[in-house]
Structure formats: C-alpha cells, structure tokens
Specification:
single chain, alpha/beta, TIM Barrel, three-stranded antiparallel β-sheet, 9 helices, 16 strands, globular
Length: about 325
C-alpha cells in the first residue's frame, strides 16, 4: 500500500549543489537557488547551518539568510539558522572539519553579536559541553529561544549533565564529531545517551553510523527522542570526485561517502534528507508513524516550530519501505 506523508524537516543542512552556507562569498541568489533545490529534493523545511567561521563571514551570511526568511516562498520553510560552532572543542578529531583558527571559547557577547546579525533568527546552537563558561552561554542562549545542542566535544558525564541542567536539549550528530579513538567507557557518546533529557540527532546516510549503532540509539532513546538529519553539504547532489571544502581537499566517492582523504574523517554528508530517511526505513527498525516522528515531528518540536505550509508531499511504499517524491 502507498500512503502520502509530509515532507521532512532537517535541522542541519550546510549547503546544497555547489552552494556552501558558510562560504564568505555566499550570495542571496545562490542561497535562494540552494533552498529551492532542497525543497525539490523532498525536504519541506530546514535550518541552514553555518559552521565555525570568521566574524566577517557571519557578518555577510547571517543577514542574507535572515532576509531570505522573509520572502513569501521561504516563509515557514527556512526556519532559522543553526550555528554549529564556534564554541566547540579545539581538539583534533572532536573538532572535525571545523577550522581551528576560528574556534572560540564561550562568549555571551559574541553570541549577542551573532544574534543581532541574524535578526534574531538563530534557532539552534551547537556547543561543546566541557568548555569553561559554556553553562552560562547555554542559559543565555536558551533565554533567547535558541535550542542548544551538544557536539564536537570531548565531554563526559558531569559536563554533559551540567549542560543539560543549564538548558541544552539535544546532541548534534551523535556518534560523529568525536576522535576515531576514545575511551571505551568514558566518552561523549555514552554520556550523551545516558542523559535522559537530551534528544539524539543522528545522520542516517549509511556512512556516518553503522546500522547496529542506529538500532542501539533508537532502543535507548526511543523514537520520541531521536531526530534524523542529513548534515548535507554543498556537495549534496554533486558528481563523485575531488573537491575543496571547509578549507581542505575532500573526496565524494561513488557510494556517497564524503571524507578528507588525508585524515579519513568524514566531512559532512553528500546525501539528502530523503536519502537518509530511506536508508533508515530500509533497516526496518521503525513503523511509518515512527519514521514520520523522527523525520518531521521531532525536529519541529525541538526548535518549537510550526509545521511548514502545505505543498511538499511524499509517498511511502509500505512493501518496499521507501519514500519517494
């Protein structure tokens, strides 16, 4: 049986088809074109994400996004901005593809400045829970209506508990953004899973997490506390090959895996939300109602957003367990 289902909501998209939302040369036309492509690919609403960047990049890019949000075609679909950084771990592995020179210690005045540049449109902020002063930053961000997520960190139980107490709500791409080698017992993954208040955001593109770990996260958190995100980049929907992104050379291979060939670390995703949801559906871990929950309802609830306007509808084939435009 084939059923109609709503389009998905993605809280972390870094770019699309050649347009990088963290590019200092981002244009209003380029951003609009990327948004249209994202919607055409089955995502009904999303948070454009800016990674750790220079102040001049924030000064240029945040107003472009804020202005686009006011356009009738994007109203209720471009839901705000996700700032992934700059208040993250400076350590290799935990920092991921974020440029070290632009990583900052928690600073409320810096966040105030970024909020002003965005015209108050920042809806999500990713920080590292172990940083000195981060709990005060989390409390301030929460008071401004920002959903704080913990990621790109080396935090353990005590720091993550303190961050959750301060107001943090979720875990950015849980299972990723950590060093390849971590302590088997004391690490951000287990500490995050153990913190009952925190929702787990996960990338289900078939590359960031093995199926067994996705199953484990779902069993621990339950579908009510899991959010699927694509972590899509400017290389989403691009041909396989070698590219330059995030200040480094990266490779997009035939399977869709996007990585830095020097370090082996993943450099975001080359997949759409539709592709991520189809991979998750293929694992046969969730019912259709639960798939809609993790791909649409939970993301909206996490940032306290209303459902997007009608217009993007998908179909779901229950026999094939696949979504389609």
């Amino acid at each position: 049986m084939i059923k109609d289902v709503p389009g998905f909501v993605d809280l972390q998209i870094n770019g699309y088809q050649g347009v990088d939302f963290s590019d200092a040369g981002l244009s209003a036309a380029g951003f609009a074109a990327a948004c249209r492509g994202i919607f055409e690919a089955g995502t009904a609403a999303f948070l454009p994400t800016i990674v750790t960047s220079t102040l001049s990049t924030y000064e240029h890019n945040l107003p472009i996004i804020a202005q686009a949000m006011r356009l009738p075609e994007f109203e209720g679909r471009v839901l705000g901005v996700h700032l992934e950084g700059p208040f993250i771990s400076p350590e290799d592995g935990a920092r991921g593809a974020h440029p070290l020179p632009h990583v900052k210690a928690p600073d409320i005045q810096v966040l105030e400045r970024l909020l002003g540049l965005s015209e108050g449109s920042i809806r999500m902020l990713t920080v590292a829970a172990e940083l000195k002063g981060v709990d005060q930053l989390i409390a301030y961000a929460t008071s401004q209506g920002i959903s704080v997520s913990l990621g790109h960190q080396l935090a353990e139980d005590q720091a993550i508990h303190a961050a959750a107490t301060a107001g943090a709500k979720c875990l950015t791409h849980l299972g990723n953004g950590v060093p390849a080698t971590i302590d088997r017992h004391h690490n951000p993954i287990w500490a995050g899973l153990a913190q009952e208040e925190l929702t787990a955001m996960i990338i289900t593109d078939g590359h960031h997490l093995p199926a067994s770990l996705i199953k484990l996260f779902l069993r621990i958190k339950g579908s009510a506390q899991v959010v699927v995100t694509s972590d899509g980049t400017a290389l989403t929907n691009m041909l396989p090959g070698s590219y330059h992104m995030f200040g480094a050379d990266v490779t997009l291979d035939e399977s869709g895996r996007l990585y830095n060939p020097l370090t082996g670390y993943l450099a975001g995703s080359g997949s759409t939300m539709l592709q991520c949801m189809n991979y998750l559906a293929s694992l046969q871990l969730l019912t259709l109602a639960e798939l809609i929950q993790v791909g649409c309802a939970n993301p909206l609830n996490l940032i306290n957003a209303q459902p997007p306007p009608p217009g993007i509808t998908l179909s779901y084939d229950e026999e094939l367990r696949q979504f389609a435009l």
